[in-house]
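#struct-help
A.M.: can someone run this one for me? Single chain, 204 residues.
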Amino acid sequence: MILYSFRRCPYAMRARMALLVSGQRVALREIVLRDKPAEMLALSPKGTVPVLLLPDGGVIDQSLDIMHWALARHDPEGWLAQEDAELIAANDGPFKHHLDRYKYASRHGSDPLVHRCAALVYLGLLEQRLGISEYLCGTSRSLTDIAIFPFVRQFAATDPIWFADEPLPRLRAWLDGHVASDLFNRAMIRNAPWKAGDAPLFLG
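D.P.: on it. Structure tokens below:
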């Protein structure tokens, strides 16, 4: 299997983490977004990562679909049993909309503080959930946590000093735990951009 990925993309992060926890052996091809390889575009013309090429020639080019595919084959931590599709959809939809217009305000011509405030509504919901249990769906990490956490990490990193003062102590502890995890560190190993003819580098 071959995975086209970009290290800092939150969609690619969650796909890599699911592939790793599932124990799938995947050749990792790190791309440069401004110079996408023709091999990737031939598989998925939309040009976004991640893109997973399967042994049978099939292609999966949506991160959640990659997560489900991997975990359907091996799910040692029971991630699929703790999936909150509605919470993930709220992350991928409204929260991501506001995150982009907060982090990349000049690109979108937006007022970053308006969108930061709107995004806090969702983060407040996560804070409430984490007041009930250590993770978003129970006592252990799950697909829900891993699908959402890279985007919360991106939000927090936009203005870390401000974020550290917000009344979100459980969310910060949850975020710090994921960032410090061995799984995340394995998913975030730096690799040089792939080019045709390179020897394969395997995920993890």
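A.M.: thanks! The mean pLDDT is 98.
D.P.: also worth noting: Residues 2-77+185-202 form a domain with the Glutaredoxin fold (CATH 3.40.30.10).
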